[in-house]
């Protein structure tokens, strides 16, 4: 009902009052039809009311009303229709003439075109054949190229060049899969390409598996070689350091005969490409590239990491059948080689393993190594074993630090067991000291050759002169000294070796602390034990005292040696020097020697019983005992000065003289002497003078002041004799005079001895007066002194 032209919309006329509803519906329907509206509402309405006949009636009515309108239109245009029919009739005659003309032209065209059409058919047929041939050639060329690629892929497979074979397969799939004209060939490719890829993956995986097995052995050898290089570098450093110490020592001694040139050698490169630590990663990288080509890169990365992690876990296993001391090098070398390989893979693997994964593996390895070291160190009871493992671990640390691995945790474990190592070392030294002392015969060492002198004297700087002695040479010490010095030097070197390369740059204080403990506790205790339990003769005691003097020089060398090995300047080491650490043993040795000498002297002093205490005249040359004692002392000095230092000799003789003085005073106090005369005291005065003369005669050997100190050892007996021979003994009561002249006297002894001089016999004070004469003023003064001292008491 729609038209391209717009039409005027018909509006139904208003219904007059009184028209029926049926009329109105008819008008609405007519209006809707004329306007081209939808008649659906009308249809639904009549069906809803159940009167479809009404709608049909209205439609028929509308049709009849339009027929009259059509008739009117036909009448209006009839003339035009007649004219059109006439035109058509004239046109029909023209068409007939045209038709005949066309027919003639067609006949002529057919006659002319038949040969041409025949030629055209031949051309088309030839063209089709040519196209088919070109298509066949193109298909053949495609097949030839495909076959060449397939042949090349087979050749690469034969040569195990899997990466290039996969590239060929990728080219076949990318370029020729859709262009392959043969369905059979295409099916063959679809079947064989996945099979070839599976074969390559299997082959590469097998090669990678073989590499995983081989790399464990390679890693162990690699680790041993790398640690060996670190050890060699450390040895070169030690040699340079020794030369430097020798040069410093020569400079200290002002020796210019020899000059050392310190030349540092280049370290070997620990590099797999240019150095000597080469190892083959081709199977690994080949497998990685192949899996990248196969699109399985992540899976290969995971597979590699998991297998290497399992290998590392297997490397952590410590065999319970083999002592760790024998297997620790293999254990640590395996781990070192593992991480050297991983460092190379990290740097050159193109992302095969990440830095985070390597760090996680290293953290696991450090934790396990620390646990193993803690466990093994806790079981060890030999210092040397602990030192061997510590040295190897420190070399492991130096090796892996060069590859950027942190080793602080390992060094902390070593530092943690520092005290235990030194306690074990002290225990070993204690046994060695005991053995050395037990083997000593306490006789002076006899050296025939210069090398013996160098080995036993110069190496410990215990010589008293820089001039080389004549040989054979008799040393002032016994074999104990060099034996113990060797033990101490070994202790120092072992201690420095343990502390070196342990992450602690300044460790001299630690070495010094344990060295002092070794000397002041272990060596001093061992010497004390021998001195108190094994020394029975003067010769042995004198030799031990001489040894102690040499030990005093050796201790200075020990601390200098420790400072040199620790890299500390000698001036700093000497600035912190402390007292002689073997002072207890030295004092005990001198005390033992003095005690034995006193026993010898006591044998001579038994002759004091032969003194005539009531003699009428004093002995002109002294009493017998003192002559024997002086002969013994002179013999002692002539012998002892060969091995004892003058200060030791002075202290020993001073003790002996002091003992003699005490014995003289003790004899006057003893019960065996009931009374004595002034002549007896004058005889004692001669004895003391002889002893004082002996002391003064030692001045050339010692010094003037030392000789005076020896003389002062007789001060008590001298002051007592002076008091008894004094004309004014009451001066003893004067504090000033007493402090100046009698400060060594005990007033109780003075009273006891003076009473023996004050006897009822007229001969007791014969020198003061005669029988029947007036009392001697000296006696009167002495009596007054005794009375006042008793009153004071």
Automatic annotation (TrEMBL):
Limits of the Exocyst complex component EXOC6/Sec15 N-terminal domain: 58-227
Record-level GO BP terms: acceptance of pollen; pollen germination; pollen tube growth; vesicle tethering involved in exocytosis
GO CC annotation terms, alphabetical: cytosol; exocyst
Keywords (A to Z) from UniProt: Cytoplasm, Exocytosis, Transport
Keyword Transport recorded: yes
Domain Exocyst complex subunit EXOC6/Sec15 C-terminal residue range list: 410-756
Keyword Cytoplasm: yes
Transmembrane segments: none
Pfam name, any one: EXOC6_Sec15_N
Cell location: Cytoplasm, Cytosol
Highest taxon of source: Eukaryota
Role description: Component of the exocyst complex involved in the docking of exocytic vesicles with fusion sites on the plasma membrane during regulated or polarized secretion. Involved in polarized cell growth and organ morphogenesis. During cytokinesis, involved in cell plate initiation, cell plate maturation and formation of new primary cell wall.
Recorded family membership: Belongs to the SEC15 family.
Protein name (record): Exocyst complex component
Organism whose genome encodes this protein: Penstemon smallii
């Amino acid at each position: 009902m729609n038209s391209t032209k717009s039409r005027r919309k018909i509006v139904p006329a208003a219904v007059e009052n009184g028209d029926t509803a049926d009329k109105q519906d008819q008008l609405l329907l007519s209006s809707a039809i004329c306007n081209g509206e939808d008649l659906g509402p009308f249809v639904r309405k009549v069906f809803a009311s159940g009167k479809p006949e009404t709608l049909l009636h209205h439609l028929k009515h509308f049709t009849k009303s339009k027929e009259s309108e059509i008739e009117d239109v036909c009448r209006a245009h009839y003339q035009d229709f007649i004219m059109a029919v006439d035109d058509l009739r004239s046109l029909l005659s023209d068409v007939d003439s045209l038709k005949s003309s066309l027919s003639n032209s067609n006949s002529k065209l057919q006659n002319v075109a038949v040969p041409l059409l025949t030629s055209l058919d031949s051309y088309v047929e030839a063209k089709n054949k040519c196209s088919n041939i070109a298509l066949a050639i193109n298909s053949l060329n495609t097949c030839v190229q495909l076959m060449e690629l397939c042949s090349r892929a087979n050749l690469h497979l034969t040569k195990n060049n899997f990466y290039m074979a996969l590239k060929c397969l990728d080219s076949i799939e990318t370029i020729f899969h859709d262009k392959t004209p043969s369905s059979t060939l295409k099916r063959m490719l679809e079947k064989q390409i996945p099979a070839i890829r599976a074969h390559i993956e299997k082959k590469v995986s097998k090669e990678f598996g073989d590499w995983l097995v081989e790399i464990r052995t390679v890693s162990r050898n690699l680790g041993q070689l790398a640690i060996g290089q670190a050890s060699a570098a450390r040895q070169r450093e030690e040699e340079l350091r020794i030369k430097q110490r020798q040069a410093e020592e020569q400079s200290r001694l002002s020796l210019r005969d020899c000059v050392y040139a310190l030349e540092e050698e280049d370290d070997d490169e620990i590099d797999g490409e240019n150095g000597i630590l080469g190892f083959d990663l081709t199977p690994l990288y080949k497998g990685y590239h192949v899996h990248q080509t196969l699109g399985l890169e992540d899976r290969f990365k995971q597979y590699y990491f998991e297998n290497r992690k399992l290998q590392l876990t297997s490397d952590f296993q410590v065999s319970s059948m083999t002592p760790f001391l024998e297997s620790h090098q293999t254990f640590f070398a395996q781990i070192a080689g593992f991480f050297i390989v991983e460092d190379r893979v990290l740097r050159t693997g193109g992302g095969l393993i990440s830095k985070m994964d390597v760090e996680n593996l290293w953290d696991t390895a450090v934790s396990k190594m620390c646990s193993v070291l803690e466990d093994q160190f806790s079981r060890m009871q030999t210092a040397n074993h602990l030192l061997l493992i510590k040295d190897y671990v420190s070399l492991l640390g130096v090796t892996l630090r060069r590859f950027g691995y942190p080793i602080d945790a390992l060094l902390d474990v070593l530092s943690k067991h520092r005290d235990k190592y030194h306690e074990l070392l002290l225990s070993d030294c204690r046994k060695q000291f005991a053995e050395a002392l037990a083997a000593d015969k306490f006789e002076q060492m006899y050296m025939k050759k210069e090398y013996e002198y160098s080995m036993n004297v110069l190496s410990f700087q215990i010589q008293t002169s820089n001039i080389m002695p004549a040989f054979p040479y008799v040393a002032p010490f016994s074999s104990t000294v060099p034996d113990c010095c060797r033990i101490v030097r070994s202790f120092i070197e072992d201690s420095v070796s343990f502390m070196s390369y342990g992450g602690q740059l300044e460790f001299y204080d630690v070495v010094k602390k344990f060295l002092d403990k070794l000397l002041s506790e272990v060596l001093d205790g061992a010497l004390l034990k021998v001195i108190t339990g094994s020394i029975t003769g003067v010769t042995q005691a004198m030799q031990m005292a001489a040894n102690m003097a040499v030990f005093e020089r050796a201790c200075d060398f020990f601390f200098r040696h420790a400072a040199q090995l620790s890299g500390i300047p000698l001036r700093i080491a000497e600035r912190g020097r402390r007292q002689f650490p073997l002072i207890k043993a030295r004092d005990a040795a001198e005390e033992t020697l003095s005690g034995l000498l006193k026993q010898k002297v006591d044998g001579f002093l038994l002759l004091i019983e032969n003194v005539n205490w009531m003699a009428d005249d004093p002995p002109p040359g002294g009493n017998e005992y003192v002559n024997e004692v002086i002969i013994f002392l002179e013999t002692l000095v002539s012998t002892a000065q060969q091995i004892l230092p003058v200060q030791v000799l002075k202290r020993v003789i001073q003790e002996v003289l002091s003992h003699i003085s005490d014995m003289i005073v003790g004899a006057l106090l003893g019960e065996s002497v009931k009374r004595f005369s002034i002549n007896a005291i004058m005889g004692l005065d001669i004895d003391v003078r002889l002893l004082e003369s002996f002391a003064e005669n030692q001045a050339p050997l010692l010094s003037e002041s030392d000789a005076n100190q020896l003389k002062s050892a007789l001060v008590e007996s001298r002051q007592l004799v002076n008091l008894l021979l004094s004309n004014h003994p009451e001066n003893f009561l004067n504090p000033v005079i007493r402090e100046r002249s009698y400060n060594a006297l005990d007033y109780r002894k003075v009273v006891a001895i003076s009473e023996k001089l004050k006897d009822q016999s007229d001969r007791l004070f014969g020198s003061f007066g005669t029988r029947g004469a007036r009392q001697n003023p000296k006696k009167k003064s002495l009596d007054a002194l005794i009375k006042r001292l008793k009153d004071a008491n």
